[in-house]
Write a structure and sequence with these properties.
Helix content: 40-55%
Radius of gyration: 27 Å
CATH superfamily of the largest domain: von Willebrand factor, type A domain
Distance between the termini: 49 Å
Structural class: alpha/beta
Number of strands: 9
Strand content: 5-15%
CATH topology of the largest domain: Rossmann fold
CATH class of the largest domain: Alpha Beta
CATH architecture of the largest domain: 3-Layer(aba) Sandwich
Number of helices: 13
Strand order of the largest sheet: 6-5-4-7-8-9
Length: 376
């Protein structure tokens, strides 16, 4: 295949990606063509990984990319290959039809039969990755048990700490602390045996979480609380509340036992679980009774779809009070996982002006991203 043929083939490949919903622009195609000049074209895996990076393919589109790559670039290596425009639309004569996208072995976490080399070298969607991306409203009780095992090694358990402005004594690197150095030198007849240093203190994350357990949040609430239970095990400074028509402090209820048993106890003990919702009234209750748990180092995280039946003025006053005191207010909305969603509901629209970060919470992957950023 000549250089010109390669460019034509790459353009057809990018067009097929777009036809299957993968966002690939003209600039991405140019980057892909430039990357091809740096890659070993005889190394299939290097070409695939290089193109995936150069075309800036999103993680959620990797399965489609791998499927199309297997079809296009296998054909490109065969002498007398048919026009690339027909590779996806119709199989060659005498060959079995290609399976539709989304039900390949790669999508199931196994190597695709179209891939070269031994299985296992080409990463695909593992069951864990599929569970991370499965929407909560499509999950079952069996998924909850699998998620409990997955949460034990979730990246969210390694919440990043942030450096403080305070300087504390440090060993090794840091700023020179002349005052302490002179004080130490008094005991050695004025000789500076060693130089004292100071470094910025590391602050652990401080979180206050308020989880909506109303009827509209019922498909999500158990999975959100399962994630919160995991956080409680590793974050020292954390307060957890549930709200619907009233506010309930959950922190004393969160034991180190199994997540499912704790969730069953919460469902039975939280008043009006899966009932109505009055976000403004509940946040007002939080402000009047528990705002002392919030300071300038605390992130307040509200997990709710923002569907409020109460007075929007009450909600606005409560949000203003929380925002004035907290380091940041983060609102995680499961509905935001749908690209068609617009925050036009009265409660959500009222709260948004007081929110520092508005992010989705429709699956485990979105929660991991949100909490990793919350503590950074």
């Amino acid at each position: 295949m000549t250089g010109r043929d390669l460019v034509v083939h790459l353009a057809a490949f990018a067009g097929a990606l777009r036809d299957h919903g993968v966002r690939v622009g003209l600039n991405d195609e140019i980057d892909g063509a430039q990357a091809m000049t740096k890659l070993d074209l005889l190394d299939r895996h290097e070409v695939r990984w290089g193109l995936r990076a150069a075309l800036k393919v999103r993680r959620g589109d990797w399965v489609i990319f791998d499927e199309l790559f297997a079809r296009f670039w296998s054909a490109a290596r065969r002498p007398g290959n048919p026009p690339v425009e027909r590779i996806v639309d119709a199989p060659e004569a005498g060959k079995r039809p290609q399976r539709p996208l989304g039900i390949t072995n790669t999508a199931l976490g196994a190597p695709s039969p179209d891939e070269d080399g031994a299985g296992g070298e080409t990463p695909g969607y593992s069951p864990d990755e599929q569970l991370r991306r499965k929407p909560f409203d499509a999950c079952t009780e069996r998924d909850l048990a699998a998620m409990e095992r997955l949460l034990r090694r979730s990246p969210a358990l390694r919440l990043p700490s942030r450096p403080s402005r305070r300087l504390v004594p440090a060993s090794g690197r840091g700023r020179a602390d002349l005052r302490r150095s002179f004080r130490r030198a008094v005991g050695t007849d004025g000789e500076f045996v060693w130089l004292a240093r100071r470094a910025r203190a590391i602050e652990e994350p401080r979180l206050v979480l308020l989880c909506d357990t109303s009827g509209s949040m019922d498909p999500h609430a158990r999975f959100l609380l399962a994630f919160i239970l995991t956080l409680k095990r590793v974050v020292k400074h954390i307060e957890v509340f549930a709200f619907n028509t009233s506010l309930t402090r959950l922190t004393p209820w969160l034991s180190r036992g199994r997540i499912r048993q704790t969730l069953d106890r919460l469902v039975a003990g939280v008043p009006d679980w899966s009932g109505g919702t009055r976000i403004g009234a509940c946040l007002t209750d939080f402000v009047s009774r528990h705002l002392g748990a919030v300071d300038a180092r605390t992130d307040v995280v509200i997990l709710s779809d923002g569907l409020d039946c109460g007075d929007p003025d009450v909600l606005a006053r409560a949000m203003r009070a929380v925002r004035r005191r907290a380091r940041a207010v983060i609102w995680l909305n499961p509905l935001l996982g749908d690209e068609r969603y617009r925050p036009e509901a009265r409660g959500m629209a009222t709260a948004l002006p007081f929110v520092d970060r508005f992010a989705p919470a429709h699956n485990l992957a979105s929660l991991e991203r949100a909490f990793a950023r919350a503590a950074s």
